[in-house]
Amino acid sequence: KSIIDKISECFDEICKNKEAEMSFHLGSGIYVKLCSPYMVVHIRKYYWTKDNLFLPTSTGVSMRCDEFRDLKAVINMMNTS
Question: How many of the other CB atoms lie within 10 Å of CB of 13?
Answer without folding.
Answer: 16
